[in-house]
């Protein structure tokens, strides 16, 4: 949740757009001035409302056109300035984003969103220009002085400390923020991510359980709960969490995959098979569920079904490294089985299987070098099997293997 602070401002864009206006340096206004001011504010709010409709449709250029019309009617219209900054962020135009947050901060120096937004903009920009990390910290710390109860500022300070390598300080800042507001679920999510990155899974779990209890209709929070259960080897709890996640959002592809693979880890092969078959039906363009279904069959001892699945994957994508690897494993098993038989025909068949295994394994490694370790382990075993086959065939006058 690295973008928590700036993105959080998006959530407020649809809120009442007419209640903020530029402050006048005059202490009093005549009735005519007040009426004109109110009318301009109303017209600006109308244009802003249209712009926000375009924003929701991700038509950002059109949104900006209407924001500009709002500002033509009422310069320094607060919510329009916020909307400008957030929209440029969504367009990944960092310079414009920073410019608009600067304007907001300049015109409204006591604005919470100005401090949060400019701090977030500097934090984002610091990935390209590291010098901005100090500016981000200054904005967050100033924001905390003005708004000590606003827990989002603690997130910002913690993120700065993480980037600076001040990990222990970041942890304490997260805790202070959560002490201020233990129900800031965005901050909780960020802290859980922080803990997971440092493999502090038990600590992360206690916070994630609170988050899911509060947001029990959030499929992604429930999925992350399943991830934590997996890390702690609580497989049954993980299955329950992933199952709940896909019930909440049937199109949550990653949760479906995790559900099936966890069932496979439990050796619940029948349930795993049914789950992956469901996934292949729901996500027809995905090959990974077919691969996993093959692995289920392989672990289940149904090598014929597994081989068909891996061949299907390769028929759709001949460069699918994992399918080559698992086909190689099947042929290693076939060669091993042949070496234990008693006929020269079986031994010759074993040699042929060994050659096929080698081809698939080497292909898996050449396509994806990350397969090297497990491929080399299979090849090492296969070479021993081939030596046995060669010896047996040599004794019956056959030297080709």
TrEMBL record:
<keyword id="KW-0732">Signal</keyword>
<dbReference type="InterPro" id="IPR019734">
    <property type="entry name" value="TPR_rpt"/>
</dbReference>
<feature type="repeat" description="TPR">
    <location>
        <begin position="151"/>
        <end position="184"/>
    </location>
</feature>
<dbReference type="InterPro" id="IPR011990">
    <property type="entry name" value="TPR-like_helical_dom_sf"/>
</dbReference>
<keyword id="KW-0802">TPR repeat</keyword>
<feature type="repeat" description="TPR">
    <location>
        <begin position="44"/>
        <end position="77"/>
    </location>
</feature>
<feature type="repeat" description="TPR">
    <location>
        <begin position="219"/>
        <end position="252"/>
    </location>
</feature>
<protein>
    <submittedName>
        <fullName>Tetratricopeptide repeat protein</fullName>
    </submittedName>
</protein>
<dbReference type="Pfam" id="PF00515">
    <property type="entry name" value="TPR_1"/>
</dbReference>
<dbReference type="Pfam" id="PF13432">
    <property type="entry name" value="TPR_16"/>
</dbReference>
<feature type="signal peptide">
    <location>
        <begin position="1"/>
        <end position="21"/>
    </location>
</feature>
<dbReference type="Pfam" id="PF13181">
    <property type="entry name" value="TPR_8"/>
</dbReference>
């Amino acid at each position: 949740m690295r973008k928590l602070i700036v993105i959080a401002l998006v959530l407020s864009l649809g809120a009442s757009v007419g209640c903020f206006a530029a402050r006048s340096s005059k202490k009093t206004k005549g009735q005519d001035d007040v009426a004109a001011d109110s009318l301009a504010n109303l017209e600006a709010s109308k244009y802003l409302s249209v712009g926000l409709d375009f924003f929701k449709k991700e038509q950002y250029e059109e949104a900006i056109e209407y924001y500009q019309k709002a500002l033509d009617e009422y310069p320094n219209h607060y919510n329009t300035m916020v909307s400008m900054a957030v929209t440029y962020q969504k367009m990944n135009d960092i310079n414009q984003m920073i410019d608009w947050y600067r304007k907001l901060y300049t015109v409204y120096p006591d604005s919470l969103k100005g401090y949060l937004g400019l701090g977030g903009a500097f934090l984002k920009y610091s990935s390209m220009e590291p010098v901005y990390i100090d500016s981000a910290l200054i904005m967050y710390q100033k924001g905390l002085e003005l708004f000590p109860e606003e827990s989002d500022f603690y997130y910002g300070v913690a993120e700065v400390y993480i980037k600076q390598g001040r990990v222990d300080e970041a942890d304490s800042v997260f805790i202070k923020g959560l002490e201020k507001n233990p129900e800031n679920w965005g901050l909780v999510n960020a802290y859980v991510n922080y803990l997971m990155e440092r493999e502090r899974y038990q600590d992360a779990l206690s916070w994630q359980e609170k988050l899911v209890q509060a947001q029990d209709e959030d499929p992604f929070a429930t999925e992350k709960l399943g991830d934590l259960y997996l890390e702690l080897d609580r497989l049954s709890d993980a299955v329950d969490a992933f199952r709940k996640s896909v019930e909440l959002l049937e199109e949550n592809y990653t949760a479906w995959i995790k559900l099936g693979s966890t069932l496979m880890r439990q050796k619940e092969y029948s349930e795993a098979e049914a789950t992956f078959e469901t996934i292949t039906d729901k996500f027809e363009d995905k090959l990974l569920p077919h691969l996993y279904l093959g692995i289920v069959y392989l672990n289940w001892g149904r090598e014929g079904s597994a081989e068909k699945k891996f061949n299907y994957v390769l028929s759709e994508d001949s460069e699918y490294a994992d399918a080559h690897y698992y086909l190689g494993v099947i042929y290693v098993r076939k060669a091993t089985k042949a070496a234990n038989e008693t006929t020269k025909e079986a031994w010759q068949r074993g040699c042929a299987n060994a050659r096929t295994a080698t081809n698939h394994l080497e292909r898996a490694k050449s396509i994806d070098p990350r397969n090297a370790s497990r491929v080399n382990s299979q090849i090492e075993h296969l070479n021993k099997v081939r030596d046995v086959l060669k010896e047996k065939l040599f004794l019956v006058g056959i030297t080709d293997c």
